[in-house]
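Hey all, sorry for the wall of text incoming. These are the two entities for the joint prediction.
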Amino acid sequence: MNAMETRKESDDFILELHNVKKYFPVQKTLLDQIFAGRIDYVRAVDDVSINVKRGEAFGLAGESGSGKTTIGRLSIGLEPLTEGKVIFNGMDLSALKKEELRKLRQKMQVIFQDPMASLNPRMTLGTSVMQGLLIHYPEIADQHRDMVVSIFEKVGLTPANYYFNKYPHQISGGQRQRVVIARALITRPDLVLADEPVAMADVSVRALLLDLMVQLKKEFNLTYLFITHDLATAKYICDRIGILYLGKLAEVATVQEVYQKPLHPYTKALLAAVPVPNPRKRRTEPMPEGEIPNPIDPPSGCRFHPRCLIASAECSLTEPKLKELEPGHFVACHHAKLG
Amino acid sequence: MEKEILAEIKDLSVTYPTRIGSVSAVDHVNFNIYKGEILGLVGESGCGKSTLGKALLRMIDPPGEISNGKIVFRGENIMEYDYNHLRDFRGRHVSMIFQDPMTSLNPVQRVDEHLIETIQVHEPQTKEDSALQRSKVMIERLGIGIERLYSYPHQLSGGMRQRVMTGIGLILNADLIIADEATTSLDVIVEAKLADQLREIRDEFGVSLLLITHNIALVAEMADRIAVMYAGHLVEIGDIYKIFEEPKHPYTQGLLASVPNIRFDTNEHLYKMPGEPPNLTHPPLGCRFHPRCPHAMPICSQREPLLVEIEEGWSVHCWLYQEQSS
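and here's what came out:
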């Protein structure tokens, strides 16, 4: 049963996460395990359901430890699930054999934060980008070079032949991230997982990369799962956004809805904390007390209740379910009200 | 109100020799830091902002060196200080908070030991009890529970560690705190709280803050004045309200227009600045921004402009605002 959205005829979901959980065991010595009599788990992702529509850019935002990166990795089968189901293009990822999953990977590609760490320093840029083709399309080896050149042009690495034989250390950070984007797109994916793709870029470069990603999305009919800690950046690329807190979804809606009408107290605090580049609009709201609690032993009931300004007795006892308060606007809070 | 000058940075240059020629990471920079102000120093990676921050403490590692200019702090030229004098100056008068508190704190020292050591190095006559007392007061002032005094750095959260660093900076009543990307590795809520705290500390202790960051929105949130650096040059400096309202330097204009804003009533499209910052081994001639500048004129590629005051307290390093014959 999908807890989040009831399926409509018109909906075409490329990616569905059904009650997904991921618990990581905490490393302990054998002796500790015997004495404690149990193993502790970090509940990185705890019962999250998300549907990503084909062609949209879905953002996942939250602070460190909220589980956003783990959800990304689970979504493309880089990590086995503890519980739940991930369905990509109608196929259940956990039911696939290793070889089948590998074939499917050309349809789901990744862009990570640090392009220098994602590129092999001893491979030319052209060879790096070509790797996907060598694995998935070995039969058309004679066309590989032309395909790489054409994708380089699409991502703005021109003249493409010049960049083809360069090494990662010879180009700038912004250009490196373009190479990583080119590599992700060369196998013509349907879904691109972008995990903090512009977090390392400087402001002026960031605007160019975001613009490029928006353009490429249109041109290649891509769906983005965009993971970020930076809500201001998400505004420029995402259609819908999910706010995560300690492994759970606090709120999901269109970016405009969430930013202009946040309903969850955590979302409100998070949005208020983002500095606005206008000294005449400085923040006056107080920030919530404390810091994100330990995910090994999360608070009972609503996980945000110890820091929440409007928490009541109920909040520490029962966990709020994600409810659709308005069409398309989901909130997990006992006290969330419209208006 | 006449502002009291705390530090004057005069014609300061920092150069690093490299295999392919020397790099001027900071090139003839002039500005003042006033008492009790928060000055935001912004720019992109490699613009020299961190190097400038380090230079203020004369902490440039060889083979890099301060190749020109001087730093006058409370009337004294610190370029003339000898090793012992400099050692006392660092920490007592100017202290620094870095981006990563985990690498700045000693992993095998407790919080109380960090603070007591700081006091006793600079004031050897202070007894351990009274140093501990002062540490307790400081820790509580920063909103860290007293029980945390006996924790090791790894037992603290990132925000807490950064507050301990701030405490170490403040415990000797420094006049200037240089925060080099101090909030960058923190989550936004923790960052916002640290920002509030730094502001409160400024109000309470009258300390000056030099906030070095690439986060322009944070500077808008906190600073009284803003200084913008590009490729080793200080290109614009002035009042935060005025510069955000009507930036003069084309780089400042582009930079401010490319900052994402979470509010929906503002810029829906980010300005896309062409090109990338230059490589400082071969900086462009004249104004270093001219290859990316939409207003570039013939003179811009030939001669470097001066940093000229266009109105009181507002200076711009651009040919658009000065006579070409000068």
